[in-house]
Structure formats: structure tokens, C-alpha cells
Amino acid sequence: MVRARTNDLNLVERAAKVLPAGVYGHHSVGMLPSGYPQFFGRAVGARLWDVDGNEYIDYLCGYGTNLFGYGFEPVEQAAAEQRRLGDTMTGPSALMVELAEAFVDMVAHADWAMFCKNGSDATMIALMTARAHTGNATVLVADGAYHGAMPWCTPRQVGVIPADRAHVVTYRYNDAASLRAAFEAHRGDVAAVFAAPYRHDVYADQEDLDLDYAQTARELCDASGALLVVDDVRAGFRIARDCSWAHTGIEPDISAWGKCFANGHPISAVLGNDKARKAAADIYVTGSYWFSAVPMAAALATLRQIRETDYLEKMIVQGQRLRDGLDRQAADQGFALSQTGPAQMPQILFRDDPDFVIGFNWAQLCIEHGVYFHPFHNMFLSHAHDGTVVDETLRRTGMAFEALRGSHARLSEGETSALKRRIAERAASSD
């Protein structure tokens, strides 16, 4: 099934002349199979359309920014009403206080909140706060974890100098002994431990949080005075109506939030306990758009939906329906999937596919059949992914699996070599 790409390819050509590398960052499709569109025209609910009018059921949800679906009316109405009053003004609106109060009420460990724009802003504020609080420099992060695109944490280190990462030390996620060893090696200088809600590295199966590791992180931070930071930018409010570690009974000192809590409107947050309050007040961080009122109105409306609806339970049910259906389809065609992570944040890889060739091939076939899956990044369901959407998804993926089995669907030798080269280059750039 060949889809029109005239407008998309024209924009790609134009972008290459005026944008570095065309489209940059994680929204670039340069690492994806050739059939992926780069530019989109509109999005509604669980669906989006590229600039050539091709429709997709979208399981990226704007890389996790949409929790209730694109254009969700209660949120858009709140944003529109505030836009008529004012957005980016000389100072914040009263909504800033209301939003901070709402977060403090909802998140058990939080005594205060700060707002910014991107997940990278939030994790940088968390790091600065930890260093200000402790007077120490070293930050411990899990090997392979993603905490943003600032020089201290970006996975691609072109343009980064050794001094930018001189005090960043890695440990193995979910490995309490590895974390203890990192603490011991930097005794007296650890400012913070960064941890994710669960292990969600790219190109890898996802891994649930190990309780012993989480308890060890809390104990080591308490004993040393370091701050425990949970990076909830990706998973916040997709696992719990609280910090994603809430089910463990272990509270962080700081959590970083972003993506979905304003249902696609640009805002992120840092939440902290009273231990870290003075340090957060002492650091200097700011942005001309950080206090914009429209995203805060959208966030308040989104938090209301989070509190008052069963969105989470429904996403889990539909995510499991999707997972079960894909497993059956794969088995029927002689393939085996490795589906890991929370059902509402699925990672879908193929077993016995070390070079990702089968997975990339299948992902491209899904695109051709109107399902936007990602071949190596975890994905997201929204509340808009209801039973009807999941049923339609499985009808389309069924056709993709049938095509995958056919020899005509195999990547050419040249395409396979290019794919392996791109994967190797990405791995090398992340070292």
C-alpha cells in the first residue's frame, strides 16, 4: 500500500535548506524507516494526518504529550478562555498559584512546585536544586537512561565538552549493588540520584522497578544528604495519579514532570519537598514563556480530568487488549513479540531480531496501513484510544503482519545495510 508523500517530501527538501539537518531532535524521522512522514497537518483524538492527507492511528501521542487525545474539548475550552484574557504577560496570572496548589494536593511528596517549559528544563532545575542543597557536584544516573538534552545529560555528545559531564556518574538501573558502589566511589560528593519510574531505554525491553533498588536509593540519599530525584517527565500520570513511585511507598525529594499534564500545551514542572525548598528558592532559573497563563489553564483542566475520571483504568484495559491482540497476530504469522513496560506505555520489539530489521520492516508496514508505531521507542496510549480505536488498530496491524510474512515485504540488502549503519551510528553517538 503506497501512500502519497509529495507534500511531505517537498517540505523535507525545503527544510534541508533552512534548518540544520532538516528537522532535528527526537522529532526527526532520520532514524526511522523511509516511509515515515516528517510533517503533519492536523490531529484529533487518537488520530493524526500528515501534510499529504494520510490518516494514522497515533501511538506516539506527540511523544507522550497527549493524555486525553488531541484537541480534547474540556482542555481546549479552558485554554481558549484564558487566551482571551492574556497569555504571556509581564508576570504570571493567578493560575500559577492555583496550579501549584493543585499539584501539591495531588502528589504526596510535594510541598512546592516550579514551572518551566520542557522536560530538560525540569531535570536541569532538579539537578541545580540538589547541588545547591548539598554543595556537592556528583550526580548519579542510570546507564542508558534519558533525562533530557542539556549538556550534562544529552545522549549525543557532539558539541559537549568533558567538563560538561565531569561530575555525571552512571550506575546500572535496578541494581542496588551498582548504586552502592557508585556512592562509595564518590563518597561525600553526591548531590543527587536520578531514577526513572521504570527502565524505559530505547532499543531495549522495558523493566519494572525493583523495590530493593528503590529502597537502597532512598536509604543512601538519607544517609549521605543527597536528594533522590524521580524523572516523571515521560510517565507522570500514566502510571498513577501521583508520583510514579507512589505504589512503592518510597517518596523522592524532587520529581520532574512534563509532557502530558496539560494535554499537549507546553509546560513542565518540578515538585519538591520542604527539605529542598530553600535550595529551589536560591537558584536562578527563568524563561520568558515559563509563566504563560494559557498552558497553566490547560494544565488545571487536565488535572481535573485526572482526578475525576477513570482515564487511567481505561487506558490500562485498552493497552492490554492491544498487547494481547498483537501477540496473537504475531504468533499466527510465525513471529514472536517482546512487549514490555506498562500496557498503556508499550514497548514493542521482535524476539530474535538483534539488528531490528524485522521490527523496522513491520513498523513501516504499519505506517503503510495507517498505524503510527515506533520501532525502538516506547509508545503511549491516550484516553481517546478506546475499544473502537484498538479494534481498528488490530485490523490494520493484522494486515501488516500478513504482509511481513511475505517475501515482498523484506527490506532489500541495501536498505538492511543502511539500517544497521544508522543503528550503529546512534549507539556510537550515545556512548
TrEMBL record:
SUPFAM superfamilies: PLP-dependent transferases
One example GO MF annotation: pyridoxal phosphate binding
Keyword terms of this UniProt record: Aminotransferase, Pyridoxal phosphate, Transferase
Cofactor: pyridoxal 5'-phosphate
Pfam families, sorted: Aminotran_3
Sequence similarity: Belongs to the class-III pyridoxal-phosphate-dependent aminotransferase family.
Name listed for the protein in its UniProt record: Aminotransferase class III-fold pyridoxal phosphate-dependent enzyme
